[in-house]
Structure formats: C-alpha cells, structure tokens
C-alpha cells in the first residue's frame, strides 16, 4: 500500500507499469502516481493535456500568478515539439500523439523532476489519465522529500479534475451537436 501523498486514484498495475519518464531519472528519490477516469475520448483528453503548455490548470492563484487557466482549447497548442515549455518549469521531453506527454525539469527548486501524463482509452468515448512523477533531490535538500508528495497531491488532484471537467464538457458539446 502506497504512503499518503504518493498515490491518488491509481491502481497497483498502474504503479508498476513502465512510463516514458522512467528513462529520464535512473534512481529517483521519490515516485508518485495520480490517475483519474474521464468521460471523453482519449484524443480529446490528450488535447487538453497539451494545454499544459500555456497554463497549469491547478490553483491559478498559486501557480499561475492569479491568471485563470484558459477554458477553451488554444489553436495549434497540440503541435508539440521537444524542448517546448510546459507548466512554467518544465520542458517537453517526449510525447506520443493521443497517448502521452513527458515533461522534465532538470534543475527546479525541488530538484530534478520528470513526469509522464498518459491517456488510455477505456471505451470509444471514455479514457483514463495516469501520471507518474519522479523526483531526485540535491544532496543537502533531501529533507524536502517530505513536502512535494503532499503538495503535489493537492495541486495535481485539482489539475486533473479541472482537465477532466473541461474534456467532459467539450465531449458533451460534440455529442449535443450531432
């Protein structure tokens, strides 16, 4: 059983699966997992994950300098390239269209961070987002290991719930127009 803050919404199989970010940090000090079901197809959910290039979709008053994360898809934002900025401190380290986005911050205030957001279709119009976050702290900052899992849990839980709500809203709009 995972410790408090290290896991939210995920399954044992999701915790033991391989993720694209695994190649970025060979020996992480911490690994956290997050997951959420979304009533929208994987390509639409992935498109909302691409929005992380422009905003964090968490508590905007904390991590977006009070600016509201956009509530509509930004045209062209899904045209990803390695090295593009995302969620302020990260760069895109890899992606697979409609499947995953991997971010890396080699020198953040929290140390080296790597994470993968993966989207898996569960039916033709439902999907699941799973996230693995790995951290490696600088030697003298290892006491920080107690802060990020709980802080990230609060922030990423809000982020994933916001992205879920927006993807489901857009999926409902598409269904209503057919």
Total E-strand runs: 7
Q: What's the number of helices?
A: 4
Cα radius of gyration in angstroms: 16 Å
Count up the domains: 1
Spatial order of the strands forming the largest sheet: 1-2-7-6-5-4-3
Query: What do we call the CATH topology?
Result: Alpha-D-Glucose-1,6-Bisphosphate, Chain A, domain 4
Largest sheet: 7 strands, mixed
Q: Provide the CATH top-level class.
A: Alpha Beta
What does this structure look like?
This protein has a single domain, classed as Alpha-D-Glucose-1,6-Bisphosphate, Chain A, domain 4 (2-Layer Sandwich). It contains four helices and seven strands; from the N terminus they run βαβααβββββα. It has a seven-stranded mixed β-sheet with strand order 1-2-7-6-5-4-3, with helices on one face.
Please give a handful of descriptors for the protein shown.
178 residues; alpha+beta; Alpha-D-Glucose-1,6-Bisphosphate, Chain A, domain 4; seven-stranded mixed beta sheet; 4 helices; 7 strands; globular
Layout of helices and strands:
Layout: E1 7-8, H1 12-16, E2 30-38, H2 42-50, H3 60-63, E3 85-86, E4 90-96, E5 100-108, E6 111-123, E7 126-136, H4 148-176
Parallel strand pairs: 1-2
Antiparallel strand pairs: 2-7, 3-4, 4-5, 5-6, 6-7
Summary of the model, kept short:
With 178 residues, the protein is an alpha+beta fold. It has a single domain (7-176), classed as START domain (Alpha-D-Glucose-1,6-Bisphosphate, Chain A, domain 4, 2-Layer Sandwich).
